[in-house]
Amino acid sequence: MNRPLIGISTYLEASTRWGVWDLPTTLLPAGYARLVRESGGLAVLLPPDDPDLAASVVARLDAVVIAGGPDVDPVRYGADRDPRTGPPAPERDGWETALIRAALGSGTPLLAICRGMQLLNVALGGTLTQHLDGHSGPQGVAGRFGSHTVAPVPGTRYASVVPEETTVPTYHHQCVERLAPGLVASAHAADGTVEAIELPGAQWVLGVQWHPEMGDDPRLMQAVVVASTCRPAPSRAPAGDHGDR
User: Fold this and answer.
1) Which helix (DSSP H) or strand (DSSP E) does residue 53 occupy?
2) Burial readout 149-167 (b: 16 or more C-beta within 10 A, e: otherwise)
3) How remote is the C-alpha of 224 from its chain's centroid?
4) Residues 60, 181, 192, CA angle at the centre, nearest 5°?
5) Pairwise CA distance, residues 20 & 154, whole Å
6) pTM
7) What is the C-alpha separation between 174 and 53, in angstroms, rounded?
8) What residues act catalytically?
9) 196 contacts 162 by C-beta, under 8 angstroms
10) Over the stretch 201-231, which tens digit does the pLDDT of each residue have?
11) What is the Cα 126 distance to its own chain's centre?
12) Which of 62-71, 172-181, 199-208 comes out lowest in average pLDDT?
């Protein structure tokens, strides 16, 4: 049986050191590919490229994963930049927005992780809270994941995959402010933060604020792999797709 091809977006870094080298790189934490492989898929990396090519790329894939990463540029949702918002990543913002829209337009299953969930909300017309505390790693310790519980919303797609409250790996300081038209919240943290969003209907579209690739629960990625083998007919992107800002 052929394994479905799961495309994962990547970072774009101006300088990365390994061995004797210090070069510009496209990279991705290994946990993403591991999770895809262990869930029955084949991972292919999608480095930032010309957004006009996104539809032709997605047409060759069975599912799309938008990975975590830097803050979404607030200009994309009409907000002034908070001093605590990180530097913009225009290549990723443009490319991943195009991947999201291509997946929505073609009926391709889509899993959006952390930054990816935020960008999904922005791409469909929502906004973000640019800073909140308590959702990254231990205070004062950079580069270490934290954890907290998330509770599913009964009746949602997420709840059908993970029906119980779980503890998840987390590292973010931004979140959904205004939910985009057409999307629904499907999980919350104890403090009320929206932790998962989804698009109701036949197409499999889900965003989670945490990092499943850093945990040991494969159910979300397994659900993506299953969805990729029984895709509905292509459909137009839902209402709320307002084009680039």
Assistant:
1) none
2) ebebbeebbbbebbeeeee
3) 13
4) 105
5) 52
6) 0.90
7) 29
8) 114, 211, 213
9) no
10) 999 999 999 999 999 999 999 999 999 988 6
11) 15
12) 172-181
User: How far is CA 108 from each of CA 6, 27, 84, 225, rounded to the nearest angstrom?
Assistant: 10, 24, 34, 11
Q: Which residues contact 91 (CB under 8 A, 6 or more apart)?
A: 12, 48
Give 152-178 pLDDT, tens digit per residue.
Answer: 999 999 999 999 999 999 887 889 999
Contact criterion met (CB below 8 Å) for 64 and 99: yes
- In the chain, where does DSSP find H-type helix? 30-38, 54-58, 90-106, 115-123, 157-161, 219-228
* Extended beta strands in 89-235, E state: 110-113, 128-129, 146-152, 166-170, 175-176, 184-189, 194-198, 205-208
Write out the H or E segment, with its range, that includes residue 8.
Answer: strand 5-9
Buried residues in 74-91 as b, exposed as e (16+ CB within 10 A) = bebbebeeeeebeebbee
- Token readout for 65 is 């994963």
Residue 45 · residue 64 · CB < 8 Å: no
